[in-house]
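Suppose a colleague, Dr. K., hands you the sequence of a protein chain of 364 amino acids and asks what its three-dimensional shape might be. Before reaching for any lab equipment, you can write down a predicted structure in token form. Begin with the sequence itself:
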Amino acid sequence: MESAVSALFEPYTLRSLTVPNRVWMPPMCQYSAAPEGPLAGVPHDWHFQHYGARAVGGTGLIIVEATAVSPEGRISPYDLGIWNDAQVDAFRRITAFLKSQNTVAGIQLGHAGRKASTDRPWKGGAPVGPDAHGWQAVAPSPIAFDEQHPAPTELTIDGIKAIVVQFADAARRALDAGFEVAEIHGAHGYLIGQFLSPHSNRRTDEYGGSYENRTRFALEVVDAVRAVWPDELPLFFRISATDWLADGEGWSADDTVRFATELQAHGVDLIDVSTGGNASGVRIPVEPGYQVPFAARVRTEAGVPTAAVGLITETQQAEKIIVDGEADAVLLGRELLRDPSFARHAARELGADVHVPDQYHRSV
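The predicted structure, expressed as tokens, is then:
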């Protein structure tokens, strides 16, 4: 329902898809899938209740956590995947429930590159080997993320092309699973971001060196996914707007603004703007809304729709971001972990309307 009093609860339309409000859930890995065997990468009851609770709470769009396009693309052995039909079948249960609650179901498609094969964060997050379900990671260049990580294997041209195909295949499966938004994960120092940044990409072939070469892999992935993703449904791209390194040493906000226009020309409808993750040991000035200015720059200077993220925790803070034109939607991560019904509570505070299940109307 359209709200006459709140920008945060106005519907938002991209292509033919309308999201009922601007309170969105970003991808947040749960590290809870089976690590191997026929159930590897398959969502189960934990994932169903996790995403279902936020849908019941009124969230307009839920983007399912980073979902690997191949077993080797997982961040950890416990990540979700969408490289086989068993995974598709299990996802259908989740997407059907989200749709029943007036929530749009999105999925983030990713490959971890050199940051793959790590343990779950609450187990320390260190790299794991074959004795703990791990594998050899790959990357644009054989440069380790930090001293703790082993050096990855440099991808061959054939290997790069194969991963592009894996992204397209994953997008086909995501559509079959009932998702209506696909997001390509180009942020947080995972494979696509590794190609973008000169900090991690030292190649001397057509995939390294110049800006044009470093962005080639990302655009090939976008083109491959857009070719199989329906014209009527939107495609997102998540980017780290800066590596938080000195000028010339990494990917920058200026690069992001420039790249956003190219992504849009290749069929991307919205840029999900985050920062960091590609360089270890950097100092990031974390404070409420610290990443919102990057989303605002992309929206204003590139003229591309954006979603903002980064310690957005308060109703009025979220409302102001939309009212001021800094972003078209807000992505609330940790706050939605703390409060699955944030959207319902925010709507009440703003005097707006939001979907409430019949079973919960006594709480309104």
